[in-house]
Fold this sequence. Notes:
- This protein is of the alpha+beta class.
- Helices cover 50% and strands 23% of the residues.
- A hairpin with a 2-residue loop joins strand 5 (119-129) and strand 6 (132-142).
- It is elongated.
Amino acid sequence: VPRMPLTCSPVRLLLLLLLLLxxxxxxxxxxxxxxxxxxKSWSRPGQPWCEAQVFMNKNLFLQxxxxxxxVKSLGLLGKKVNATSTWGELxxxxxxxxxxxxxxxxxxxxxxxxxxxxxxQVEMLCQREAERCTGASxxxxxxxxxxxxxxxxxxxWTVINHEASKIKETWKKDRGLEKYFRKLxxxxxxxxxxxxxxxxxxxxxxxxxxxxxxxxxxxxxxxLDTWIILGxxxxxxxxxxxxxxIRWQKGEWQAGLWPLKMS
Length: 263
C-alpha cells in the first residue's frame, strides 16, 4: 500500500516555530511613548493655560502644568525617571513645546469659528520595535473636534475635520514648522522612548492603571495583545501537529520493522 506523504516535514514545522517565536519576541518588545498637551488661548489667573501628560505604553507616568512649571511623577517608572538627568530635559521640553503650541493656537484662532476662548489638544506619539523607530505622529484636536493628523515618518497630512483644511495648508507650507514636528517626534520622543524602555522592561508590572490616550494613538497596544494571543494559539497548534507527526513516524517505522523481525 503506498504511503500518503505529509505536506509538513519536521524541518518545516521547526522553521515555522522559530519564525513565530521571533515574531512574538519582536511584538512583545514593542513600546510607545505619547505626549498629550492641552492648550488654552486664555485662562483665569491661577489656572494653567497648558497641561501635559506623558504615557508609556498607555500608562500615565508624568504630569506637567504651566502654572507651576513643574513635572509630577506617577508610579514606579515616574520615580525612576525623576532620579535621572532626563528629568530636567523633560521639564524644559514640556514648557517650551507648550509655549510653541500656544503660539500656534493664537495664530490660527482667527480661522476657528468660535466666539470665546479656543483650545488645542495635541498628541505626539512615537513607537519602537526591534530597536528601531517604527512610528511617529501628531494628532491635533481643535475645540474638542479631531481635526488633523500628521504622519511624521513620511510627513503626510490627513484632514479629519474639513473645517481645518486651511490650517493644514498653512502648516504644510511652513517647512520650519514641519521640521520642528519631525525633530520632536522622530528625535526627542524616540530618544526618550529608547531610554525609558529599559526601565519599563525591568518593571514586574505597570504600577498605574492603563489610560486610553486616543483611538488613533492607543490602537497599537490592543492590537499587540491580540497578536500575542493569536500567536500563542498558533504556537500550540504547531507544536501539537509536530508531536502527532513524530508519533505517526515512530509508529510507521515500528510497523515497517516488524515483518523483517518475523522473517
